[in-house]
TrEMBL record, chain A:
Its cofactor is thiamine diphosphate. It comes from Tribonema minus. It comes from the Eukaryota. GO terms for molecular function: branched-chain 2-oxo acid dehydrogenase activity. The keyword Metal-binding does not apply. This is 3-methyl-2-oxobutanoate dehydrogenase (2-methylpropanoyl-transferring). InterPro entries: THDP-binding (IPR029061), Transketo_C/PFOR_II (IPR009014), Transketolase-like_Pyr-bd (IPR005475), Transketolase_C (IPR033248). Transmembrane segments: none annotated. Keywords: Oxidoreductase. Its EC number is 1.2.4.4.
Automatic annotation (TrEMBL), chain B:
It catalyses: N(6)-[(R)-lipoyl]-L-lysyl-[protein] + pyruvate + H(+) = N(6)-[(R)-S(8)-acetyldihydrolipoyl]-L-lysyl-[protein] + CO2. It comes from Tribonema minus. Pfam families: E1_dh. This is Pyruvate dehydrogenase E1 component subunit alpha. Residues 66-364 form the Dehydrogenase E1 component domain. It comes from the Eukaryota. Its EC number is 1.2.4.1.
Length: 362, 408
């Protein structure tokens, strides 16, 4: 595992320019973007700020995971150990199942556990602990115990060069588990508020951080303590012709698709960020679909049994007579996350645009 | 501040059902009992005792509780076969001395988590025979309000974090409990300990190593307690484990093995383990060599992989309750008739508890969707799923078309 992480922690000082160029071309990114990414990684990020607030306001809050005391591979916890001490911010062994169980035990005794899975792709060894121990603790004990103080953070999603095991978006697996909450923010400002809400939520939360959002400049993020409520979607753009729904970093792609549709065809899209995948705000989406009569749902994860399937099924129940076109899904393909064909695999803006146009012209 | 169990008041020891019998030693009329078998040790930097000091009051206390456990489990067997108890059911008879010895060495600030074989630990930690039966029968008077069943009994007040259904999964959770105990203890003070019990069959689960490594790395007050009852379901330890000395499995973590059929040996072993862990030395492995009379669960007759002679010889030679009875009689602390009368009383108490439990009430329908999530201002509000179709449609919860947040 460790050698895979290193490509994410290179910074412009330690990385030779020619290597940066190679990384850039592999990532399909322009040079300046990668430079700005690495510069920001060394500063306080939104996630870092949220965890700092949590540690300041809750003396039982602890932050742990693989390499987090050193700042974590994405620098999210940088400076926290120095500020709050090694008993509250510490490294764990590479033991995902152990980390999850350990965090559940700490939370069961009333502590606030903020545990990091280094990549969402590594969360699967902890599946039993999360699905069987965490999610059901309250239910099986008749509310005698719970592990509401548990928040599992995990970086997810595509970054351009992650390959099979540094790119996946596992939200649908956890959305199938009553007792868990699943959150995925779209940008840095949202990430801070949603993470604080997740940490303080009385139920266990899987907090998936799209790796792409780590690039967002920290200057956009308010200082201080604020929360963005869980389970509440947000209408980002009002529109009349088609409802476009997503979560996480996909919102940026969807916005681009909506822009194309407006510019080329004059289509007015209503863009909605679900923000919380479980429990999801179906009422907001349904209100929109009743108005527009069309729905496009999109995510990076594979199409079959992805969470878009749930949105589509639920919305056709709610809005059957309002629909003027089949609900469209723009998703990853049903393949492992590819290394060399990521750009083909990705549900990019063009695919979104195509789906929007098809829905409107149905 | 800690939100729940770690508050100072709740950490205060709760008076146990066993009264003070387990803790009050050295009163008048104490006897010294040498152990017929030595502790086996692994990298243990201190000496284990060779004898225990006890008295009539303690021994009678152990005898009564262990006999109650025995009768309770045997009654479960009958009720299961009569189809009053359904689902999964794993019985503890034969292993009583392990739980009894642990509780006698502990105080109730020490947290305890175990596997699905949890009825008798519940009895020591907040449950009553009646509430345990009620749980098994699925009634709302049960220890988990009828929502857990055989494998899931808990008591926050008594720091019992319950029975867990997945083999081995309780162990890293137990490590988290020990971390919380250490976190909440001011430097220099003795920490309460956490114990996770698991069987020989679970001992090779990978996640136990993950938890053990963390416990050792961070010197957590954690007791890894292997209840070696010789069979992981139907597979004997020789056929399932390349290392049958489970107390050595922590590698550099010290370990000790003891006769799990001898309550005094378990008690003294656990006292030593607790002292080691609570003074900042890190974890310890403790293996209790024990035996279960019943099969693994009610669907296992327990006779296909071992013969009846083995079970019979174990009952004759090593029964943990007979051991305590013999001590009482040999040392003239009780006469056989007195013990018979106690047994008779307990049999009746258990039957009465069963009768009372059978008058329990079926949980309300709302229990189906309660305790999944909570919310509201003070996090006390039940959050309901979007739609539940009740037998009476008019009483259904929510509406498919009007519901707000889906999945809630």
């Amino acid at each position: 595992m460790p050698d895979c992480h290193e490509s994410y922690i290179v910074n412009s000082q330690s990385c030779r320019p020619d290597l940066l160029t190679i990384l850039n071309s592999a990532a399909g990114l322009n040079h300046s973007l990668l430079l700005s990414l690495t510069a920001n990684l060394c500063r306080f990020t939104a996630i870092n700020s949220a965890m700092r607030v949590a540690l300041q306001t809750d003396p039982t809050a602890t932050v742990f995971g693989e390499d987090v005391a050193f700042g974590g591979v994405f620098r999210c916890s940088v400076g926290l150990k120095e500020e709050f001490g090694a008993s509250r911010v510490f490294n764990t062994p590479l033991s995902e199942q152990g980390i999850a169980g350990f965090a559940i035990g700490y939370a069961a005794m009333g502590g606030t556990a903020i545990a990091e899975m280094q990549f969402a792709d590594y969360i699967f060894p902890a599946m039993d602990q999360l699905v069987n121990e965490a999610a059901k603790y309250r239910y099986r004990s008749g509310n005698e115990f719970n592990c509401g103080g548990l928040t599992i953070r995990a970086p997810c999603g595509a970054v351009g060069h992650g390959g099979h095991y540094h790119s996946q978006s596992p939200e649908a697996y956890f959305a199938h588990t009553p007792g868990l909450k699943v959150v995925m923010p779209r940008d840095a400002r949202e990430a801070k508020g949603l993470l604080l809400a997740s940490i303080r939520d009385p139920d266990p939360v899987i907090f998936l951080e799209p790796k792409a959002l780590y690039r967002t400049s920290v200057e956009d993020v308010p200082d201080g303590d604020y929360e963005v409520p869980l389970g509440v979607a947000q209408v980002l753009r009002a529109g009349a012709d088609v409802t476009v729904v997503g979560w996480g970093a996909q919102l940026r792609v969807l916005a681009e698709g909506c822009d194309m549709a407006r510019a080329r065809d004059g289509i007015s899209c209503e863009l909605i960020d679900l923000r919380t995948v479980l429990p999801w705000d179906a009422a907001t989406v349904a209100a929109s679909v009743r108005k527009t009569g069309r729905l496009v749902v999109s995510h990076e994860a594979p199409r079959t049994c992805g969470f878009a399937a749930e949105v589509a099924a639920d919305l056709q129940e709610r809005c059957f007579l309002h629909l003027q076109a089949p609900v469209a899904r723009v998703c990853g393909y049903d393949t492992p996350f590819p290394l060399v064909f990521e750009r083909h695999y990705a549900p990019d803006a063009l695919k979104v645009y195509e789906a929007i146009k098809k829905a409107v012209n149905y | 501040m800690f939100r729940s169990a770690l508050t100072r008041s709740s950490l205060r020891a709760c008076a146990s059902q066993m009264g003070e019998t387990g803790k009050r030693a050295m009163s008048s009329g104490s006897i010294t009992v040498p152990f017929s078998r030595e502790y086996d040790t692994h990298k243990l930097p201190f000496e284990m005792p060779k004898e225990a000091v006890t008295n009539k009051e303690e021994l009678l206390g152990y005898f009564k509780l262990m006999y109650t456990m025995r009768r309770m489990e045997i009654t479960c067997d009958t009720e299961y076969k009569a189809r009053a108890i359904r689902g999964f059911c794993h019985l503890y008879d034969g292993q009583e001395a392990v739980a009894m010895g642990v509780e006698a060495a502990f105080d109730q600030k020490d947290s305890w988590i175990t596997s699905y074989r949890c009825h008798c630990i519940s009895l020591l930690r907040g449950g009553t025979v009646e509430s345990i039966f009620a749980e098994l029968l699925g009634y709302s008077e049960g220890v988990s309000h009828g929502k857990g069943g055989s494998m899931h009994m808990y008591s926050k007040k008594h720091n019992f974090y319950g029975g867990q259904g997945i083999v081995g999964a309780q162990v890293p959770v137990g490590v988290g409990l020990s971390f919380a105990a250490k976190y909440a203890t001011p430097p220099g003070e003795k920490t309460p300990v956490a114990i996770a019990m698991y069987g020989d069959g679970a001992a090779n689960q990978g996640q136990i190593w993950e938890g053990a490594n963390m416990a050792s790395l961070w010197k957590l007050p954690m007791i890894f307690c292997i209840e070696n009852n010789q069979y992981g379901m139907g597979t004997s330890k020789e056929r399932s484990s390349s290392n049958n000395k489970y107390y050595t499995m922590g590698n550099h973590i010290p370990g000790v093995r003891m006769d799990g059929m001898n309550v005094l040996m378990v008690r003294e072993g656990m006292k030593a383990a607790k002292e080691w862990c609570s003074t900042g030395n890190g974890p310890i492995y403790v293996e209790s060599d024990t035996y279960r009379y019943h099969g693994h669960s009610m669907s296992d007759p327990g006779t296909t992989y071992r013969n009846r002679d083995e079970i019979a010889s174990m009952r004759t030679a090593r029964d943990p309750i007979e051991y305590v009875k013999n001590l009482l009689v040999q040392h003239n602390l009780a006469d056989p008739q007195e013990l018979k009368n106690i047994e008779k009383d307990i049999r009746k108490e258990v039957q009465d508890a069963l009768k009372a439990a059978k008058n329990g009430s079926i949980p309300k329908f709302e229990e189906l969707y309660k305790d999944i999530y909570i919310g509201g201002e003070d996090n006390s509000k039940i959050v309901y799923p979007a739609y539940i179709r009740m037998p009476d449609r008019a009483k259904s919860i929510g509406s498919i078309y009007e519901r707000g947040v889906s999945g809630m």
